[in-house]
Amino acid sequence: MTADPIKEALHRLPYGFYSITSRNGNEVNAMVGNWLTQVSFEPRLLLFALSKIAYTHEVVSAGGVFAVNIFNKEDDAVIRQLTKARAKKPDKMAGVAWTPGPATGCPVLEGAAAVIECRVVHLLDTGGDHDLLVGEVVNALILKEGNADTTLTLPDLKWNYAG
Ligand SMILES: Cc1cc2nc3c(=O)[nH]c(=O)nc-3n(C[C@H](O)[C@H](O)[C@H](O)COP(=O)(O)O)c2cc1C
């Protein structure tokens, strides 16, 4: 029997694994995340649970835009470079090639299979250590062949961020 069934059960939720990019004027950032889901068809809304202490929190609060970069499984090397916090790796963005998304200017990372650009509509305090970032989808780019089965997930990497 497990010592912590709550942790074990939470680890059984499967997640995709993405890079969330953001922009405020000339400032851009990219972080990795998995707590992401669609929460409305009309309008199309995405929800991302965003750490209160992430640098991305500051950037989206001020800039009001973000983009979800979706990778195929074979392109995990690209996203692995982005796992460190900006505070720990100030030159994080120097190591990745990107172009500005046409609708938001948020980085479209080289190697991404699809990108969803969003305008922030809410950044809600949960009372916990992550806030709820809700974005309206304003544009999407399909850059490589793929589908939900080919998309990189957290279980593919045998990592987890839950518990
Ligand atoms: C596997 C993995 C999954 C993560 N998932 C999330 C997530 O869903 N939400 C979040 O806010 N942070 C998540 N993080 C942590 C952020 O990537 C981390 O806070 C990072 O420092 C944020 O980068 P920034 O400070 O440059 O914005 C995850 C980290 C890893 C390694």
Name given to the CATH architecture = Roll
How many discrete structural domains? Answer: 1
Q: Which strand order spans the largest sheet, edge to edge or round the barrel?
A: 2-1-5-8-9-4-3
Query: What's the rounded overall pLDDT mean?
Result: 97
CATH superfamily annotation: Electron Transport, Fmn-binding Protein, Chain A
How many beta-strand segments? 9
Enumerate the spans where pLDDT stays under 50 for 5 or more consecutive residues: none
Write up this protein.
- The chain has 163 residues and is of the alpha+beta class.
- The protein has one domain (5-157): Electron Transport, Fmn-binding Protein, Chain A (Pnp Oxidase, Chain A, Roll).
- It contains 4 helices and 9 strands; from the N terminus they run αββββαβαββββα.
- It has a 7-stranded antiparallel β-sheet with strand order 2-1-5-8-9-4-3, covered by helices on one side. Strands 6-7 form a two-stranded antiparallel sheet.
- The longest helix has 9 residues, at 55-63.
- The model has no long low-confidence stretch (mean pLDDT 97).
- The protein binds flavin mononucleotide (FMN).
- Flavin mononucleotide (FMN) binds at residues 29, 31-35, 49-51, 54-56, 83, 85-87, 130, 154, 159, 161.
